[in-house]
Amino acid sequence: MKVTIVTFRDIFQSEAQEVDRFGEDYRRMSAVVFLDKSDAAKAGIKDGSNVLVESDNGRVVVVARISEDAHPGLAFMPNSPWSNQLVPAKTDDTRIPSYKSISATISVTDDKIPTVEDLLRELVS
To answer: Contact at 8 Å (CB) between 116 and 81?
Structure first.
């Protein structure tokens, strides 16, 4: 399924980060993608499924959450180490990467959701 990823800041995620950025609560709130109900149904993605999100810049496994709000073609991810895997390195004149319009594909996977430590290991290898 092709979508445009839009990232956002989440107050609850920020609270969990203050307690333990490497903890399960932070991962549960951060390693997630919110999908349009009709898009998810067409792609056979169920709420709580692990999904592989791939962009031209990277890939990451997160959990799918089905949104009751209609937003066909759009998927939303909290700003986090997981969504950062998809962000283009190329910047515009502002030299700030684009976090609001990331072309991606999403598919169901049996792969596990990486921890922050896993993501950091990939970054330095």
So the answer is: yes
User: For residue 46, which phi and psi values (nearest 5 degrees)?
Assistant: -105, 155
Q: How far from each other are the two terminal CA atoms of the chain, in whole angstroms?
A: 30
Distance CA 60, CA 110 (A): 12
pLDDT tens by residue, 1-21 = 999 999 988 766 556 556 667
**Distance of alpha carbon 20 from alpha carbon 48, whole angstroms:** 23
CA 31/CA 17 separation, integer angstroms? 13
Instruction: Look at residue 3 and give its three-state secondary structure.
Output: strand
Q: What is the DSSP letter of 107?
A: E
